[in-house]
Amino acid sequence: MDIRYYLFLSLALFVIGIMGVLTRRNAIIVFMCIELMLNAVNLLLVAFSKMHHLAAGAGASTVGSEGQLFVFFIMVVAAAEVSVGLAIIVMLYRNTHSVDVNFLNRLKH
Amino acid sequence: MGITQLLFWILAIASLFSALMVVTSKNPVYSVIWLIITFFTISGHYVLLNAQFLAIVNIIVYAGAIMVLFLFVIMLMNLSKETEPQKNKWLRLIGALAGGCLMLVLVAALKDTAGKDAELGTGSIGLIQNLGSVLFHDYVVPFEISSILFLSAMVGAVVIGKKEERTGPREGNRQLVEDAKESMGV
């Protein structure tokens, strides 16, 4: 499969995530769109790792596995990030009784 | 067109559609469910790329753990009603336009890339044997550091998510003192 299809597919997923971050006001949905962007990058990393593996030839057996390990570490960091982020959203909801990101402008005043 | 190409297109269309539904659903619970479907289609892409380990980990960690966490938070905060305040119409239009501009720029930058192939269905670097040997030979230190990261995230989540009891008793004591003063008529 041509690598460009994977490039444009993950680009489209990433841009959909960005549009969600820019247009939604619910903090949880903004957070989910960030997860979507992370997954788009993961997909592209895996596709590039397979491309690299194919380009290296049959003799190099572990060439390209660094990309997939990167995806593994991104998943680790994403899990930690989600737990802390959801705790922050719960705290925000407890203080303001809303998860609207437009109420998060107190640093402005 | 072979069966893998056909599967790629089906999965690509499914993932794009479900990602769009994540952004456009009014109800957050529906957004979560569409996001789970997106993760499943991305896992399908991983299987097509013969990265079985990542496919399984993606389903277990993302669709299994993270999205359940999201669902729990949404349901605990009772946010599943559809009356989300919408942003200003112009603001939303400008947001979509900004995303479209980014897409346009990146497509224009990437459309002339050399069309190398990514191998589908063959190759063994995505199997758990190879990934495990590389992970525990060359990436042991980042692996252990990630456990520290998890520990700190766990502590952070508990500290942030806890009810504010560190300042609570002090405030309560002050209130008690005020009440006592009042009752004594001081």
Features:
heterodimer, A: 109 residues, mainly alpha, Helix Hairpins, 3 helices, 76% helix, elongated, B: 186 residues, Four Helix Bundle (Hemerythrin (Met), subunit A)
Q: Could you characterize the architecture of this molecule?
A:
The complex is a heterodimer of chains A (109) and B (186). With 109 residues, chain A is mainly α. Chain A has one domain: Orthogonal Bundle (Helix Hairpins), CATH 1.10.287.3510. Chain A contains 3 helices and no strands. Chain A has helices spanning 3-23, 27-56, 65-96. The mean pLDDT of chain A is 86. Chain B is mainly alpha-helical and 186 residues long. Chain B folds into 2 domains: 3-124, Up-down Bundle (Four Helix Bundle (Hemerythrin (Met), subunit A)), CATH 1.20.120; 139-186, no CATH class. Chain B has helices at 3-24, 28-48, 52-76, 89-110, 128-138, 140-161, 168-184. Chain B is extended. The chains are: A mainly alpha (109), B mainly alpha (186). At the A-B interface, helix 1, helix 2 and helix 3 of A face helix 1, helix 2, helix 3, helix 4 and helix 5 of B.
Count, helices of chain B: 7
SSE arrangement of chain B, N to C: HHHHHHH
CATH class of chain A: Mainly Alpha
Name the quaternary structure.
heterodimer
Largest interface: A-B, 74 and 85 residues
Q: Taking all residues together, what is the mean pLDDT of chain A? A: 86
Q: How many discrete structural domains of chain B?
A: 2
Binned, the helix content of chain A reads: over 70%
Mind sketching the topology for me?
The complex is a heterodimer of chains A (109) and B (186).
Chain A: H1 3-23, H2 27-56, H3 65-96
Helix pairs in contact in A: 1-2, 2-3
Chain B: H1 3-24, H2 28-48, H3 52-76, H4 89-110, H5 128-138, H6 140-161, H7 168-184
Helix pairs in contact in B: 1-2, 2-3
Give a brief description:
The complex is a heterodimer of chains A (109) and B (186). Helix content of chain A is 76%, strand content 0%.
